[in-house]
């Protein structure tokens, strides 16, 4: 889906893995399956499920402590960079666009500001290209891989439908970013909080590298090293996600 994305839309390809739980809607709890190993769920299977990208505050602190210790004890040859971000997301209904090919109703425009400076960091319409849910029966969490397009758009007019405040600790290592975020949702910018979530996301840091390596994957005119670069990038991404799930 990375190579076959609708290129006429432009935008940035985002590949991310979120840690959380696959929930059986009917049972109201974590999905149960008669399998003993990590399992990728068929997106077309008749399962009434949802993915909850959330964890307890205790688990969130555990990851924070672990990542901070890695930063302190890191080897100088491959540093772990850290930044603490305070972001404000305002969501607006997206204007209808027949050329978008998103095939989804309820698209939204997200305007992200630095809460300290009020500067607009990003104004995008996010188009989901696909998801894969991974059930991990031997661990306390599952994970989901999502591929999205983030298409730059003009700042919308009017008032936002809802607002999210993000207190985010970002750790960057080589080609990957780990975001630990406390997300507070408000029905309006100055309204009391409706929901507080604790999220962990792993993302490929450089979309341009992702696309460049994907384009050479089956190119017989380049070296084997170049052809295998995409697979190696995805393998490292998946291994990092698995490690994060194991240490919940």
UniProtKB/TrEMBL annotation:
Its cofactor is Mg(2+). SUPFAM superfamilies: CYTH-like phosphatases. The keyword Mitochondrion does not apply. It holds the Pfam family mRNA_triPase. One of its GO terms (molecular function) is mRNA 5'-triphosphate monophosphatase activity. It is an enzyme of class 3 (hydrolase). It is found in: Nucleus. One of its GO terms (cellular component) is mRNA capping enzyme complex. Its EC number is 3.6.1.74. InterPro entries: Cet1/Ctl1 (IPR040343), CYTH-like_dom_sf (IPR033469), mRNA_triPase_Cet1 (IPR004206), mRNA_triPase_Cet1_sf (IPR037009). Keywords: Hydrolase, mRNA capping, mRNA processing, Nucleus. Residues 12-204 form the mRNA triphosphatase Cet1-like domain. One of its GO terms (biological process) is 7-methylguanosine mRNA capping. First step of mRNA capping. Converts the 5'-triphosphate end of a nascent mRNA chain into a diphosphate end. Heterodimer. The mRNA-capping enzyme is composed of two separate chains alpha and beta, respectively a mRNA guanylyltransferase and an mRNA 5'-triphosphate monophosphatase. Belongs to the fungal TPase family. This is mRNA-capping enzyme subunit beta. It comes from Ephemerocybe angulata.
């Amino acid at each position: 889906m990375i190579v076959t994305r609708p290129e006429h839309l432009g935008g940035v390809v985002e590949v991310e893995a979120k840690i959380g739980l696959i929930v059986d809607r009917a049972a109201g709890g974590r999905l149960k399956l008669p399998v003993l190993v990590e399992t990728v769920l068929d997106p077309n299977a008749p399962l009434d499920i949802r993915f909850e990208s959330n964890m307890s505050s205790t688990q969130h602190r555990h990851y924070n402590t672990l990542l901070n210790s890695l930063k302190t004890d890191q080897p100088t040859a491959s540093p772990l960079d850290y930044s603490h971000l305070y972001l404000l997301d305002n969501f607006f209904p997206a204007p209808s666009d027949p050329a978008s090919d998103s095939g989804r109703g309820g698209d939204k425009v997200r305007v992200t500001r630095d809460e300290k400076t009020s500067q607009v960091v990003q104004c995008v319409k996010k188009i989901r290209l696909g998801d894969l849910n991974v059930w991990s029966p031997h661990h306390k969490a599952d994970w989901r891989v999502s591929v999205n397009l983030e298409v730059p758009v003009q700042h919308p007019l009017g008032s936002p439908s809802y607002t999210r405040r993000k207190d985010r600790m970002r750790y960057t290592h080589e080609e990957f970013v780990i975001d630990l975020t406390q997300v507070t949702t408000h029905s309006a910018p100055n309204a009391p909080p409706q929901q507080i979530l604790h999220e962990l996301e792993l993302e490929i840091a450089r979309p341009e590298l992702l696309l460049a390596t994907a384009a050479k994957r089956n190119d017989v005119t380049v070296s084997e090293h170049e052809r295998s670069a995409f697979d190696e990038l995805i393998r490292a991404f998946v291994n990092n996600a698995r490690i994060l799930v194991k240490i919940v």
